[in-house]
Amino acid sequence: MKERHFWWAIAFIGLSWIANSIYAQSKQLKEPIFLDHYIETSANHDIITFYYLANKNDQRHLNYFLINHLNAYLEDEFIYSQEQPYNMQSFRHHVLRSKTIHLNSMDLAYHSPDKDFSFTNLSAIFSDGTSVDASIGDVTIHSNDPFFSSDSLRMHSSSSSNSGESSYQFEAIEPITINEISYSFYERFKDDLLITSNLAGSPSSIPVDEMDFPIHLEKGQQFTIKITPYQNASIVHPVMFPISVSGFSQQGEAFVTSAWYVNQPYLTQQDVNAIIRKKARRDSD
Q1: Three-class SS of residue 19?
Q2: Both 256 and 188 in a single domain?
Q3: Are residues 105 and 66 in the same domain?
Q4: pTM of the model
Q5: Residue 9: pLDDT above 70?
Q6: Are 44 and 140 within one domain?
């Protein structure tokens, strides 16, 4: 009788192991999944970081990217072990990894000297020779630097908090007229981010899309741009874009200067589930 119980227990353990193995295998990604990126930058900023999800047991290194037929090579990783990829975060079945490219490796000054370089897809080439064609979101790299062109309006200070808020204070170096405050991805993030502005001494801030332009500032007068995520916002994407302030000096010289919104992903298991559900059309949990 005891022997029979023993073999029943062995059989149960074996079946449980098989069931768990089948379940874990069903959660494996067929290929790495790249997050959606919302980035506007310039070639002068030199680097962009891309984030992707991979299986925990995937030991392949990402060697380089192919973007619009141009090779994009990676930043050196000498601070990490070359024996296995570096995991930024670890989840039940998957890990979050990142790779940073040098924009100068793409030689955009030669291949795209006078126009913006935009892309929504790329190919990632891994150390075993395999490649992944991935939807990447929306990325634009400007050939010049359209985010700063004059000292008429100078950034005085900036601050940020763990809650995702950031604040930028500007000071007019001479009398100026602000004609516009604008930013990319307005439609994408208008329900996630509240971007406001106020003049020094003003009792309240106004959303920038409700401001009455033009706005006149005297020399030495300050104003602030504040970026606040809404309480129910869930921004899991890698995001980087400028909030550009543009106008004219008293002498009629055009100027532009910028505040920046930057978000680096820090995911929960629920975020991973949602990303995989959207990108791979199935659950990861």
Answers
A1: helix
A2: yes
A3: yes
A4: 0.85
A5: no
A6: yes
